[in-house]
Amino acid sequence: MIIFKGLKKFLSTVLIGLLLLICSAGLTGTQVSDAESKVIVVASTSWTGAIAAAAGADEVRILAPLELKHPPEYDYRPSDIAKLKEATAFVYAGYEPFVKKLLDASGFPPNKVFTVETTNVPAILEKQARILAAQFGTQAKERKWETRFNQVTAGILKRTEQKKLSLVKVLVQENQQAFVKWLGYNIVGVFSAEELSPAKVMEYAKLGSDLIIDNFHNPQGMPIAEVAKCRYVELINFPSSKAPTLIDLFMENARQLGL
Questions:
Q1: Does domain 163-256 correspond to CATH entry 3.40.1410.10?
Q2: Taking burial as the number of CB atoms within 10 A of a residue's CB, which of 82, 87, 173, 245 is the most buried?
């Protein structure tokens, strides 16, 4: 009888231990699964990062600081390699010189590296977000973002029609041309992102523009505006701390234009 009781106690102890082990393994498995399913994206700049966020990434680690006026000029730091740890993907645009050096130094898997087109036109941004979402498996999140984005951009276009922007003659910097064309302005000229000669300034000033739209990240149009004595506005291409998402960026640029 004593032996039986001892055996019973032993078996009970073993059973409890097995149950605890199974539960522990189950919890551990859930944690690993959650970590693996979380979409972590490292992005070269706030622009590529905003596209990744629109695509449904759970976490976006941006390398070039938001306060940097021209983000592609950023030079990576050794600490940036740590940001690639456990990343699902690396996203860049192709014009950032530092990216190749970073990827070579980190040994990040090439099959996890994606290039996106950075042009602030809704159709292009939506296409890029969909492509990334298909890779991340986040299509539902992307569709939700796209619905909100379409609402915002439709509202902006409605205001452009009300203000008859097609009658407004605009001289625009080349890096804002696509966005300004989408808005419906009457573009009478496009100037370079490079420094303009005095002769070029005078040439552009004679076009009779009502408005000069420049690019904040590498502006060149102020001398033209001073000669032409017309309104001057700088718009952003790269999201900022003030406008961190694509939706925020569109709203901020519309605000700058009085839309």
A1: no
A2: 173
User: Which tops the pLDDT comparison, 31 or 246?
Assistant: 246
Kindly tell me the burial class for residue 246, based on how many C-beta atoms sit within 10 Å of its own C-beta (0-12, 13-18, 19 or more): buried
List where CATH 3.40.50.1980 sits in the chain.
37-151, 163-256
- Tens digit of each residue's pLDDT (9 = 90 or more) over 181-218: 999 999 999 999 999 999 999 999 999 999 999 999 99
Choosing among 3.40.50.620, 3.40.1190.20, 3.40.50.1980, 2.40.300.10, the CATH entry for 37-151 is 3.40.50.1980
Q: Which of 170, 153, 159, 163 is nearest to 231 (CA)?
A: 170
The per-residue b/e assignment along 11-24, b for 16 or more CB within 10 angstroms, e otherwise, is eeeeeeeeeeeeee
Q: Give the torsion through C-alpha atoms of 36, 114, 92, 76, to 10 deg.
A: 60
Whole-number percent of the chain with pLDDT over 90: 84
**Which residues have a Cβ under 8 Å from the Cβ of 160 and sit 6 or more positions away?**
183, 184, 259
Return the H-helix or E-strand segment holding 82: helix 78-83
